[in-house]
Automatic annotation (TrEMBL):
Start and end residues of each PBP domain: 25-252
Keyword Signal (UniProt): yes
Protein name, as recorded: Substrate-binding domain-containing protein
Gene3D superfamilies recorded: Periplasmic binding protein-like II
Keyword Nucleotide-binding set for record: no
Keywords for the protein's UniProt record, in alphabetical order: Signal
InterPro entries: ABC-Tungstate_binding, PBP_domain
The organism's place on the tree of life at top rank: Bacteria
Native species: Teichococcus aerophilus
Residues spanning the signal sequence: 1-26
Pfam families: PBP_like_2
Length: 278
């Protein structure tokens, strides 16, 4: 029996060497999600991602950028999933073959914030009238200027108002090329107006004299969608785990987790995965 022990030991070593990569693979299940700064800076991901990882064992690395930049990350194949909020840009992403399907996930709304004195007179629920008032008074306005979903929405609203804000660039209209948090900080420091998503606003603490001035306009609706980056375009995309993330987001546990996220008793995002118009 003694002579057989070295063979047994060698066999155990071999089995352990084979098992180690398998255990490592099980531990290293992860995906990269390119998403908006609003989902990150509002704290939503910090709330829902641990629940997803507990349910699936899949870790999520978030790359938080403006929607346009997040979609570019997907186009390059540097993300497995994109989770953004610009319906027109998302449709273009699909038409270009970088995804095959878009899933509605949730919505909230945009708000116009500005100094409590509101010298431009923007208070109310008509955002187009509010932007016209800002332009007429040439009141300071901060734009993200970063190709984000919020920036795209802002430009659409200026267009509805019949105003080219670029005419005020360098005077009353300032583009900073940064995310929602830095834009809010800049607006707070300069008593300026700004279009913000409500989620980031609710989680933002450095408000100084900023107040919500315009809200409730249906044109301020803000829908979020999620897409798997097409593995036919980028074969290294982790399609199975990426789809598992999408499936969880639109499932009852995922939708319930989104709905449960609140700040000071106020819900930030409203799940609507089953809305055919979402």
């Amino acid at each position: 029996m003694a002579r057989r022990r070295p063979l047994l030991s060698a066999a155990l070593v071999a089995l352990s060497l084979l098992a180690a990569p398998l255990a490592s693979q099980a531990q290293d299940r992860s995906i990269t999600v390119a998403s908006t700064t609003s989902t990150e800076q509002s704290g939503l991901f910090g709330h829902i991602l641990p629940a997803f990882t507990r349910a699936t064992g899949i870790q999520v690395r978030v790359v938080a950028l403006g929607t346009g930049q997040a979609l570019d990350v997907g186009r390059r194949g540097d993300a497995d999933v994109v989770f953004v909020h610009d319906r027109a840009a998302e449709q273009t992403f699909i038409e270009q073959g970088f995804a095959s399907r878009r899933y509605p996930v949730m919505y909230n709304d945009f708000i116009l914030v500005g100094p409590a004195t509101d010298l431009a007179g923007t208070r109310g629920n008509d955002v187009v009238a509010a932007l016209r008032a800002v332009a007429q008074k040439q009141a300071p306005f901060i734009s993200r200027g970063d190709r984000s979903g919020t920036h795209a929405a802002e430009l659409r609203l200026w267009q509805l108002a019949g105003i080219d804000p670029a005419s005020g660039r360098g005077h009353w209209y300032r583009e900073i090329g940064q995310g929602m948090g830095p834009a809010l900080n800049t607006a707070a420091a300069s008593d300026a107006y700004l279009l913000s998503d409500r989620g980031t606003w609710l989680s933002f603490r450095n408000r100084r004299d900023l107040r919500i001035l315009t809200e409730g306009d249906t044109r301020l609706f803000n829908q979020y969608g999620v897409m798997l980056v097409n593995p036919a375009r980028h074969p290294h995309v982790k399609a199975a785990d990426g789809q598992a993330f999408i499936d969880w987001l639109v499932s009852k546990p995922g939708q319930d987790a989104i709905a449960a996220y609140q700040i000071d008793g106020e819900q930030l995002f409203f799940p609507n995965a089953n809305d055919p118009n979402g």
